[in-house]
């Protein structure tokens, strides 16, 4: 049952991802990405991680992709053409892509012996999922968490500086 | 696979859908009646007694109207947008408890479709998807007014969603759960245990942000007739328009139901001695009160200007919502023993309320000072 469900979800995720990359119309591409996030969220639910699933929908599909859509509409899709503007970078892209694929493959192979031994056992499911995530985030992973928030802050300040350069 | 459980879910889902759709229909009737009373008119009185058949007549009219799709519109998205709005509006109610467990034909049935442990987050996540219907509808119409309406609406929804979520966090911290059923149970048994008394500012912020979220007056800028004709649904007609209309009204029921669940004790009767099986009646009455407030505001207040809306959202509402979360956290950390000492939180809550009132007053008085200065300068 769960294998079948995973199969359906995986196929859907791959189809939406492929459609997103190949979409001629940018708005359609953005929508396919939203659909992809939704499929991934369902996968999280099947992995007994409802909190992560809900955050995936609320943050990525609900907030970030809306801003993407917003920008695509403001700039106008006609001005975002699919002409080859970064022609010289094709080679680098191919090499880096292969490298990433290699890393993912190594991770997958090294993780294979642990397949089916989920960390989220009955003990976790019975308790409040959110409390567990919160406790982990604010004790064991406090430093990465703070670092990520500083990173986001820097990005935000950077955007303000770029937008308001003339006024500063 | 447990077929009896599946049957129970399907029956509950159908009941919720029927209730929401009838609720929507009679909400439009109620709104017209109440607004006309406030404006010293009679209002709908032709179809049936007191115009009670008006929603039916409206529905028949909308079904038989011609459906237009603009020639240069993106047809797939144009058709999908109202459907997205509607589905999202209907999904929210799945986690809202409308009553206690009751015994039906010998089996115990909870009056809630699904009690998931991240219920509140589910509500916030699903309702954040509602933007897509509006933005895509505006964009796919290929009409500049529709597009501007859609963009305005998305800016407004994103701004006020932050306040909406943060305003609810105080209640979540006090009850220590995201499950809506447990939040309601934490507010048992008498009305002074309702979270509105512990989170007065949170309640106020939630209600204001909720009005902005459902695009109701005085925050109905995406549909400002003078500037944008009808906003994002300018090009929509027939049933597709009706779907947008339904989504808007059902969202009103949704935000009212969440306000009731989070702050006003949910389905719980105001006093402990009233039997619990009257829950759905109390739930209905509380939601109805909220909807009447929405209608009352619409009939009373003029529409805000766009800059006022953004200033109010980012400079007044958001700092207050953050302050509410911080002060609630401090109060919870400082209280002598966890749990019972609610008076401490109440005291701190009233302090924030006073600070909030001062901040509101300051922002208003500085605005009126600016206006006075502008008048003298001209």
Tell me about this structure.
The complex is a heterodimer of chains A (168) and B (378). Chain A has two domains: 1-80, NADH-ubiquinone/plastoquinone oxidoreductase chain 6, subunit NuoJ (Four Helix Bundle (Hemerythrin (Met), subunit A), Up-down Bundle); 125-168. Helices cover 76% and strands 0% of the residues of chain A. Chain A contains seven helices and no strands. Chain A is globular, with a radius of gyration of 20 Å. With 378 residues, chain B is mostly helical. Chain B has one domain. Chain B has helices spanning 3-38, 54-64, 75-91, 119-128, 130-140, 144-175, 180-186, 200-213, 225-228, 238-263, 279-300, 306-334, 342-377; strands spanning 101-104, 107-110. Chain B is globular. The termini of chain B are far apart. The relative contact order of chain B is 0.12. The model of chain B has no long low-confidence stretch (mean pLDDT 80). Chains A and B meet through helix 2 and helix 3 of A and helix 4, helix 5 and helix 6 of B.
**Helical content class of chain B:** 55-70%
Please name the CATH architecture of the largest domain in chain A: Up-down Bundle
Largest interface: A-B, 23 and 26 residues
In N-to-C order, the SSE pattern of chain A is HHHHHHH
The coarse silhouette of chain B is globular
Q: How far from one another are the termini of chain B?
A: 76 Å
Rg of chain A, Cα atoms, Å: 20 Å
Per CATH, the superfamily of the largest domain in chain A is NADH-ubiquinone/plastoquinone oxidoreductase chain 6, subunit NuoJ
SS element count, helices of chain A: 7
Low-confidence sequence ranges of chain B: none
Let me know the number of strands of chain A. Answer: 0
**Cα gyration radius of chain B (Å):** 22 Å
**Spans of at least 5 consecutive residues with low confidence of chain A:** none
Q: Indicate the multimeric state.
A: heterodimer
Strand residue content of chain B:
under 5%
Order of helical and strand elements of chain B: HHHEEHHHHHHHHHH
Helix proportion range of chain A: over 70%
């Amino acid at each position: 049952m769960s294998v079948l469900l995973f199969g359906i979800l995986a196929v859907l995720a791959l189809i939406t991802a492929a459609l997103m990359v190949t979409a001629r119309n940018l708005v359609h591409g953005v929508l396919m990405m939203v659909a992809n996030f939704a499929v991934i969220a369902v996968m999280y639910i099947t992995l007994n991680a409802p909190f992560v699933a809900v955050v995936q929908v609320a943050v990525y599909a609900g907030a970030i992709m809306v801003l993407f859509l917003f920008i695509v509409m403001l700039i106008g899709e006609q001005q975002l053409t699919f002409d080859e503007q970064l022609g010289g970078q094709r080679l680098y892209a191919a090499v880096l892509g292969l490298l990433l694929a290699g890393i993912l493959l190594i991770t997958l192979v090294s993780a294979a012996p642990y397949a089916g031994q989920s960390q989220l056992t009955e003990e976790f499911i019975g308790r409040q999922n959110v409390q567990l995530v919160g406790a982990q985030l604010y004790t064991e992973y406090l430093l990465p968490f703070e670092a990520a928030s500083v990173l986001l802050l820097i990005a935000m300040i950077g955007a303000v500086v770029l937008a308001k350069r003339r006024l500063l | 696979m447990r077929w009896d459980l599946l049957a129970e879910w399907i029956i509950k889902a159908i009941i919720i859908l029927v209730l929401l759709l009838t609720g929507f229909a009679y909400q439009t009737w109620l709104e017209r009646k109440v607004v006309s009373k406030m404006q010293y008119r009679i209002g709908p009185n032709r179809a049936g007694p007191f115009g009670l058949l008006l929603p039916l007549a409206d529905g028949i009219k909308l079904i038989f109207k011609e459906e237009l799709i603009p020639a240069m519109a993106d047809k797939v998205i144009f058709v999908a947008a109202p459907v997205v709005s509607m589905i999202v509006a209907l999904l929210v109610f799945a986690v809202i408890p409308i009553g206690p467990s009751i015994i039906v034909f010998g089996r115990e049935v909870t009056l809630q479709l699904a009690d998931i442990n991240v219920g509140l987050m589910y509500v916030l996540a699903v309702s954040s998807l509602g933007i897509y219907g509006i933005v895509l509808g505006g964009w796919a119409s290929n009409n500049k007014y529709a597009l501007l309406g859609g963009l305005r609406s998305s800016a407004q929804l994103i701004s006020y969603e932050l306040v909406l979520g943060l305003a609810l966090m105080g209640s979540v911290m006090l009850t220590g759960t995201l499950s809506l059923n447990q939040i309601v149970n934490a507010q048992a048994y008498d009305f002074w245990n309702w979270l509105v008394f512990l989170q007065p500012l949170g309640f106020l912020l939630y209600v204001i942000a909720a009005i902005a979220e459902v695009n109701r007056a005085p925050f109905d800028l995406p549909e400002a007739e003078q500037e944008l004709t009808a906003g994002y649904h300018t090009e929509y007609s027939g049933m597709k328009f009706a779907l947008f209309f339904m989504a808007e009204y059902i969202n009103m029921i949704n935000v009212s139901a969440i306000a009731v669940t989070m702050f006003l004790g949910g389905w719980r009767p105001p006093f402990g001695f009233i039997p619990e099986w009257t829950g759905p009646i109390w739930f209905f009455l509380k939601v109805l009160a909220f909807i009447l407030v929405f209608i009352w505001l619409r009939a009373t207040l003029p529409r805000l200007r766009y800059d006022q809306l953004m200033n109010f959202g980012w400079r007044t509402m958001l700092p207050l919502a953050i302050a509410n979360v911080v002060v609630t956290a401090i109060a919870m950390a400082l209280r002598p023993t966890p749990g019972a000492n609610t008076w401490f939180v109440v005291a701190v809550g009233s302090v924030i309320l006073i600070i909030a009132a001062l901040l509101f007053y300051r922002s208003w008085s500085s605005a009126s000072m600016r206006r006075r200065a502008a008048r003298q300068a001209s």
